[in-house]
């Protein structure tokens, strides 16, 4: 059985994961209308992954005798000054999510909820991957700079990342 505090903290994280899915969906749309097919495909994939993160936690809360909440979500930004700005936003958002997961882990220890602590380890590992991936992409974008040919290749390249990330464990 989840404590009240643990349940609230998990429901807050469920909202953050749902908002992450919306943020990346907005990024997918921004990229798609700009003709950046590969980047759009990557963002649609990221959005799906975040929904999977949300659902995994949602089901866990109900499984442990709590009640998973469907919350109102903030509207994400839908305009970006550049591809670089968009990926910087993605990276910063993932760092924020990692901090939030760390805080959840901390709460699970304070509540002596070792089942939740164990459950959260999957998210800890996932955040390491997501941050590393965002960092790699940003490095590439910085290398390309304003080179149009490089950007074209990058848009093609990033499709590979979508294939890799979509084989992440399911719910
Ligand atoms: Fe579910 Fe990318 O954090």
Give an account of the 3D structure.
With 171 residues, this protein is mainly α. The chain has one domain (4-160): Ferritin. Helices cover 78% and strands 0% of the residues. The chain is built from five helices and no strands. The protein has helices at 4-33, 37-63, 83-110, 114-144, 148-165. Helix 1 runs antiparallel to helix 3 (83-110) and helix 2 runs parallel beside helix 5. It is elongated. The two termini are 21 Å apart. The model has no long low-confidence stretch (mean pLDDT 93).
> How many domain units?
1
In CATH terms, what is the fold-level topology? Ferritin
Instruction: Report the mean per-residue pLDDT as an integer.
Output: 93
| CA distance, first residue to last residue | 21 Å
- Tally of contiguous helical segments: 5
- CATH class wording: Mainly Alpha
CATH superfamily membership: Ferritin, core subunit, four-helix bundle
Poorly predicted ranges = none
Radius of gyration: 17 Å
Beta-strand percentage range? under 5%
Helix content: over 70%
The helix/strand order is: HHHHH
Total E-strand runs = 0
The CATH architecture:
Up-down Bundle
Sum up the overall morphology in one term.
Answer: elongated
The major sheet is characterized as:
none
Find the structural class using helix and strand composition.
Answer: mainly alpha
**Unique ligands:** MU-OXO-diiron
């Amino acid at each position: 059985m989840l404590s009240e505090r643990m349940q609230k903290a998990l429901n807050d994280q469920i909202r953050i994961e749902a908002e992450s899915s919306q943020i990346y969906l907005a990024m997918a749309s921004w990229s798609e209308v700009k003709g950046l097919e590969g980047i759009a495909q990557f963002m649609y994939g990221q959005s799906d992954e975040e929904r999977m993160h949300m659902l995994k936690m949602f089901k866990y809360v109900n499984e442990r005798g709590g009640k998973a909440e469907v919350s109102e979500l903030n509207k994400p930004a839908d305009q970006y000054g550049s591809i670089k700005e968009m990926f910087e936003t993605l990276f910063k958002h993932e760092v924020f999510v990692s901090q939030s997961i760390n805080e959840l882990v901390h709460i699970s220890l304070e509540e002596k909820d070792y089942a939740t602590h164990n459950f959260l380890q999957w998210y800890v590992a996932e955040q390491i991957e997501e941050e590393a991936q965002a960092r790699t992409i940003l490095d590439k974008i910085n290398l390309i700079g304003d080179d149009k040919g490089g950007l074209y290749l990058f848009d093609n390249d990033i499709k590979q990342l979508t294939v890799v990330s979509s084989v992440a464990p399911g719910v």
